[in-house]
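Write out a sequence, fold above all:
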Amino acid sequence: MVLEEISELMEECNSKRQILKDYRESLQGSQKGLLKFASQNLPKDDLSDLEHFQNQFHIQLINIHDLRHDYKAYQQRLKVESQLHGGISDETLQKQKELQSQYDVLEDIIKGLNKNFAEFLQKPV
């Protein structure tokens, strides 16, 4: 693999990490909105939903952190392999596909969570 393609992979990793950072900030904002909503006098059903969203935000923030870390480690792997071998192995290329798959799943989960939370906030109290 030529250095130009490796540079593209590195840039893609940077882009994904930035998008994940943006998702993290969005979920942190949603957590603050959740706390604001929780300060109201809520029916029992809403408290259960509230707990669900609180748990999901926490879980997805952990998932974001882990995936960002995996992308960072992958970038290091790309750098080392390209410096030592002038290219990257098939195993490393496969890892990129795995990361992309994990990213796609996480993105779908976060988008669904954000949609469901927005609908929850629109419910009459």
The two ends are 58 Å apart (CA to CA).
